[in-house]
Amino acid sequence: MKYLEEFRDPELAQQLFDDIRQSATRHWTLMEVCGGQTHSIIRNGIDQLLPDKIELIHGPGCPVCVTPLELIDKALAIAAQPGVIFCSFGDMLRVPGSEKDLFRVKSEGGDIRIVYSPLDALNIARENPDREVVFFGIGFETTAPANAMAVFQAKQQGLTNFSMLVSHVLVPPAISAILDSPANRVQSFLAAGHVCTVMGYWQYEPLVEKYQVPIVVTGFEPLDILEGIRLTVKQLEEGRAEVENAYPRAVAREGNKPAQKMLSDVFEVSNRTWRGIGQIPQSGWKLRDEYRDYDAEIKFGVGHIQTQESPLCRSGEVLQGLLKPNQCPAFGQECTPQNPLGATMVSSEGACAAYYQYGRFAKSIAGKDN
Q1: How far, in Å, are 83, 115, 361 from residue 366 at the CA level?
Q2: Nearest to 16 by CA among 50, 42, 43, 40
Q3: pLDDT tens digits, one per residue of 50-102
Q4: CATH 2.40.30.20: does it fit domain 65-169+255-299?
Q5: How many Å apart are CA 104 and CA 94, to the nearest integer?
Q6: How far is CA 190 from the centre of its chain?
Q7: CA distances (Å), 337 to each of 76, 96, 166, 181, 356, in order?
Q8: How far are the Cα atoms of 6, 282, 351 from residue 169, in angstroms, in the given order?
Q9: Which of 5, 68, 261, 365 has the greatest number of beta carbons closer than 10 A?
């Protein structure tokens, strides 16, 4: 397929592997931030084909995975109320709350609908003026502009039966939190290309200056990822720390200015809790006061809900790159896609789901069985 196969060319991939192998003279640890990159790496076996000196660890860039447990429980409480149409992307329906998930609420009679855009939820609100329509607004900077636009349009059109349960998180504060951790092993980052199409990469320049770690904006196809790794290793070997763009066909330094303006008009930066990690200061967005009427957490009075993570689930360590999925004792045992303990096992971008789906867990499970 044009524009796709050219980024999966095996001969070009081999050249990049050879270049990386020749460049690496010592052990380097790289973190891919995005869950989409994690799945591409595991699906294509990139981590297994790299030289032993290059270690890839998986970061917190799965928006479903980092949505806090208490927010899932708030979503469940809202979705179960009579008269509510609860709209969400499909990934969220299997994410476990404290006792159930959205599929269970749906089976118990809740009106839960999968949509492909927040604007779909807005249309549902127009078509059902006698019902309360709630959209579960999760994600990183990539999905935030469309969510902001939905709230903006709802206010412009005077739709009072539409609201949003917001769980937006930001990449740069998460990188800072990882680098500030005493347990940090990360020496460089492959930045999420789709986030940077919206925000650009100017926000990463202060991080590089402060921490002196390379950050390379990287795409999602095999050759994109290998090029990102190649540039990162080259910087590390040369003792440089810069922001480089290995995804120029989609990303510019300044990003998408109209999208950024919409975000700043509707949202303001706030502290945000990340599932399995805890609170990271100034790492998320919330609706501004002028859009308070569209905040589902306030509208439905669920702000008091607090929950505790499962002691068996170590997804927080996976999301921080401290643990590989198959190093978790519950992986493939108490925790499977059919019976997940955490979101990382059910999300389409979750690292645990990638390891399970592509069979990378086989050796560890076999070892337990023997």
Answers
A1: 49, 39, 9
A2: 50
A3: 999 999 999 888 888 888 899 999 999 999 999 999 999 998 998 889 889 99
A4: no
A5: 9
A6: 14
A7: 20, 11, 26, 30, 8
A8: 33, 9, 18
A9: 68
| Portions of the chain given CATH number 3.40.50.11740 | 65-169+255-299
pTM: 0.89
HSE-CB of 264 using CA atoms within 13 angstroms = 8
Helix segments in 212-346, DSSP class H: 222-238, 257-266, 296-299, 315-319
Place of tokens 């059910």: 346
The per-type count for the chain, helices as H runs and strands as E runs, is 17, 11
69's tokens = 């447990």
Spatial contact of 101 and 128, defined as CB atoms under 8 Å apart: no
User: Which are the contacts of 52, defined by CB distance < 8 A and separation ≥ 6?
Assistant: none
Task: Give me Rg for the CA atoms of the chain.
Answer: 21
